[in-house]
Amino acid sequence: MRELTKIRDVVAKRVPGAPHEVLLVLDATTGQNAIKQAEMFTKAIGVTGLVLAKLDGTARGGVVFAIRDQLKIPVKFVGLGETPEDIETFEPTRFVEALFERDAIRA
Questions:
Q1: Residue 38 burial (CB < 10 Å; 0-12/13-18/19+)?
Q2: Which of 51, 77, 82, 93 could form a disulfide with 25 if both were Cys (CB 3.0 to 4.6 A apart)?
């Protein structure tokens, strides 16, 4: 974390107003451990948004609710595949609908 903080500080000295955005990429399969990760990174470098990766598989991504509730960090993007083209802007309504669709299939 110290090295990451140093990088942020160096960039801030060289680029006015930097960092403009600090995105933390979390693996959607991590579960509750993602909350601790988000908390640690936020304390160290001030995370402003999340990218939730690996949401295309069995991961449900329910940890999004806990992170948003506890840390007030918005999800900005989701990874729905393995290529950069598979990254999409996070749409909360679509996300919730997909959660209920998965539950309907499993019921």
A1: buried
A2: 51
Distance CA 70, CA 88 (A): 24
* pTM of the entire predicted model: 0.80
94 alpha carbon, distance to own chain's centre: 16
50: domain range?
Answer: 2-106
Cα separations (Å) of 14 from 5, 17, 41, 74? 15, 9, 22, 27
Alpha-carbon distance 16 to 46, whole Å? 17
* Single-letter amino acid, residue 62: G
CATH no. for residue 9? 3.40.50.300
Tokens standing for 25? 């990429």
Sign of CA dihedral 10, 3, 22, 89: positive
Digit-coded pLDDT (tens) for 38-60: 999 999 999 999 998 887 665 56
Q: How many domains does the chain have?
A: 1
